[in-house]
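From the shared-data thread, chain only:
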Amino acid sequence: MAMQQSTSSRSARITLRRDKGRLMQEAAMLAPAIILLTVFLIVPFLLSFWTAMTNQPLVPRPTPVRFVWFNNFIRTFQDDLFWTALWNVSRFTFWIIPAQCGLAFATALLLHQKLPFRNLLRGMFFLPAITSMVVVCVIWGTLFQYPTGPFNQILGFLSGGAIQPIDWLGDPEWAMFSIVLLSAWQAYGFQMIVYLAGLQGIPDELYDAAKIDGANAFRRFWHVTMPGLRPTHVFVLVITTIQAFKLYTQVAILTQGGPKSSTETVVHYMVRAGFEEQKMGYASAVSVILFVIVLIIALIQRQLLRRFDV
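Structure, as tokens:
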């Protein structure tokens, strides 16, 4: 009896020691991610939220910083320009998703075929995505020049002079459309790579089986390719939406939010409040609101992934 108790006690100690070792191993593996999330996400957010509750200026002043509680948030929601910026960035998102994702999908389908120099072509099509947005804006700013820029000359040539030169960046009706064109061209390479990875993940046996069943090219695309890319479509859609809401560089370089606030975005509005008007507390309130918007989009992403069983 005593021997059995000793044996079971020794087994319990060994099991406890193994559990403790496994727990330590899991904690060590999670530690880098937790540290990075804490340093680069949680702490900055808490600091931003604290700053949003104050009247903190950009440059320290003799007068002490005081708490204003939720006044900055209330002022933000009462500012018509903020709602204009939110509407503009929502409009940009609505336009950029079909343009950018459609271009990326079509290019990925083309480059997935057995073309000569396929890898070289993939690198060339991906080149805009790794080019600095500042450089892209300078190039496209030249293309958009009014009235003698290359785009206007091409339109005049193709229409025989029937179409008058367009002020791409100076006309409120065209400014956001121009930003969409530029952004879609610069960033579609990333989505193209994601779609290529998704296409390569579809087994060839499915296409072979479809051919044996007599399916033509369109039916193979519709009944094999599209279902196989369903998780990829969801991922690309959500990532593109989140990136669109962070629109800033193109606007800051080409239009500065104009003309007539037609290209004002939430990030540009926030940066201008913080660094031009030196209202860091107010800008922090805008950043917190933007964070909540992006968080809601991330939650929607989670629900979509669950729905599509990804």
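The mean pLDDT is 88.
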